[in-house]
C-alpha cells in the first residue's frame, strides 16, 4: 500500500501542473484583464464590460477598450505613466535600469524604463511563489489570498459539512429501507418524493423557504440573512450555538434538497445488489435474523462505495460553494468569492485558490482510496494495478 500511495503522491505534481497550465492559458484569451477593469472603474463604468452597451451615447467599442496602449489611454484620457504603474503593480511589467545604476528603480528616472513580462515568465514566477506558499495579495482588496479564503471559509464549511452530514443521515437509512421494501407502496411513494425534490432547483427552493419562513408572505421564524446575529459576541456559548443553527437552517436545507436522490438511490441499489448474492442466502438459510443479515453481513459490502466516498462528496460540496444559495441568503462564502474574482479578473485570488483547492482535491482522492481499504481490508490497490 505504501508504494501505491507514493505513486499517487508523485502523480499529483504533473496533474496539478497541468491544471494550472490549462487555466492560466485560458485566461490569456479572455478579454478585460485586471488593468482594463481598473481603468473602467476609474472612468466610473463599474466594470470593463459596460463598454459594450452600444447605446449610441458615446460608449467605447471593443477596439477602443482592448486595443493598443495608445488607443485606450487616449480614449480614457488617462496618463501613460498611470497605466505603466498599474502594469508593474499587477505583475505584467517591471522596471529595468541601466547597468551601474545604484538608485531605487523609478520610472521617473531617465536611466530606468518599463519592461513587459511575457505570459510564460509570469506563469513561472507564479508557480515558484506557490511552491514557497506565497499566494500574493488580491488586486482589488489589499488582503492576502489565504487570509481572504480563511475569512470566507466558515460559510462554505457550514454549507458543505452540514449538507453532507444531513444527506448521509437521511439517505442511508432511507435507501436501506427502500431496498428491504423494494416494489412496495413505500418504495414507490418515497421514490416519487425524492425525484420531485431532485427536480426542484436549489435556488427556487431557497426562495420558497424565504417566502414561507423568513418574513415573506407567511411566517417570520428564521432570519433573512447572515451566518450569525449582530450581537453574536455578547451571547453565551449555548446561545451562540442556538443562534448559529437558527441562521443556517434554511440555507442548509436549500443546498441539501437535491443531494437526497442520488445518495438514496445509490444506497438502495447497492443493498439490492448485495441482497441477491449467495452469501446472503446462506446466512438466511442458517437461521440468522434478518437484522443480523442486513447489518452484520450486507451493510459493510453495500456501504463500501457510499461510506468511502464521503471525503470526496464533502470536498465537492465544500469547494463548489453554491453561489446562488449564498447570494439569496446574503452569505459571504467561497462561492461568491470565486465569482467576484472571476468577474473582476482578480488573478491572485483565482489562481491561488485554484492551486490550493486543486492540491487538496487530489489529496482527498488518495484519502478516498484509503477509506476503501479501511472499510474493506480485502481491497489491495497494488495487486489491482499489477
UniProtKB/TrEMBL annotation:
Pfam families: BPD_transp_1. This is Microcin ABC transporter permease. Its main location: membrane. PANTHER family: INNER MEMBRANE ABC TRANSPORTER, INNER MEMBRANE ABC TRANSPORTER PERMEASE PROTEIN YEJB. The keyword Transmembrane applies. Keywords: Cell inner membrane, Cell membrane, Membrane, Transmembrane, Transmembrane helix, Transport. The keyword Membrane applies. Residues 153-372 form the ABC transmembrane type-1 domain. It comes from the Bacteria. Gene3D superfamilies: MetI-like. InterPro entries: MetI-like, MetI-like_sf. It is a multi-pass membrane protein. One of its GO terms (biological process) is transmembrane transport.
Amino acid at each position: 500500500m505504501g508504494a501505491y500511495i507514493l505513486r499517487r503522491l508523485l502523480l499529483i505534481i504533473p496533474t496539478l501542473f497541468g491544471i494550472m497550465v490549462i487555466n492560466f492559458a485560458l485566461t490569456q484569451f479572455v478579454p478585460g484583464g485586471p488593468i482594463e477593469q481598473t481603468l473602467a472603474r476609474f472612468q466610473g463604468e463599474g466594470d470593463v464590460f459596460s463598454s459594450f452597451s452600444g447605446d449610441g451615447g458615446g460608449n467605447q467599442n471593443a477596439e477602443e477598450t482592448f486595443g493598443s496602449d495608445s488607443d485606450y489611454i487616449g480614449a480614457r484620457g488617462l496618463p501613460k505613466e498611470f497605466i505603466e504603474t498599474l502594469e508593474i503593480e499587477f505583475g505584467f511589467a517591471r522596471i529595468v535600469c541601466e547597468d551601474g545604476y545604484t538608485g531605487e528603480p523609478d520610472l521617473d528616472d531617465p536611466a530606468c524604463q518599463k519592461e513587459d513580462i511575457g505570459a510564460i515568465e509570469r506563469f513561472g514566477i507564479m508557480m515558484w511563489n506557490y511552491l514557497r506558499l506565497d499566494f500574493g495579495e488580491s488586486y482589488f482588496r489589499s488582503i492576502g489570498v489565504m487570509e481572504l479564503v480563511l475569512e470566507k471559509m466558515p460559510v462554505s464549511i457550514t454549507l458543505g459539512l452540514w449538507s453532507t452530514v444531513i444527506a448521509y443521515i437521511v439517505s442511508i437509512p432511507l435507501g436501506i429501507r427502500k431496498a428491504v421494501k423494494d416494489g412496495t407502496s413505500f418504495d414507490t411513494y418515497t421514490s416519487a418524493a425524492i425525484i420531485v425534490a431532485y427536480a426542484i432547483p436549489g435556488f427556487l427552493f431557497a426562495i420558497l423557504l424565504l417566502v414561507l419562513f423568513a418574513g415573506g408572505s407567511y411566517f417570520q421564524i428564521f432570519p433573512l440573512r447572515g451566518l450569525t446575529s449582530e450581537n453574536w459576541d455578547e451571547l453565551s456559548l449555548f446561545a451562540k450555538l442556538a443562534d448559529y443553527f437558527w441562521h443556517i437552517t434554511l440555507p442548509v436545507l436549500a443546498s441539501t434538497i437535491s443531494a437526497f436522490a442520488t445518495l438514496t438511490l445509490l444506497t438502495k441499489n447497492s443493498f439490492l445488489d448485495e441482497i441477491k448474492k449467495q452469501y446472503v442466502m446462506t446466512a438466511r438459510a442458517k437461521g440468522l435474523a434478518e437484522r443480523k443479515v442486513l447489518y452484520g453481513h450486507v451493510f459493510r459490502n453495500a456501504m463500501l462505495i457510499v461510506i468511502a466516498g464521503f471525503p470526496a462528496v464533502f470536498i465537492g460540496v465544500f469547494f463548489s460553494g453554491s453561489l446562488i444559495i449564498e447570494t439569496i441568503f446574503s452569505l459571504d462564502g467561497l462561492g461568491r468569492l470565486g465569482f467576484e474574482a472571476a468577474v473582476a479578473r482578480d488573478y491572485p485570488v483565482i489562481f491561488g485558490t485554484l492551486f490550493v483547492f486543486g492540491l487538496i482535491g487530489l489529496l482527498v482522492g488518495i484519502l478516498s482510496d484509503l477509506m476503501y481499504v479501511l472499510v474493506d481490508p480485502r481491497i489491495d490497490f497494488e495487486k489491482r494495478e499489477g
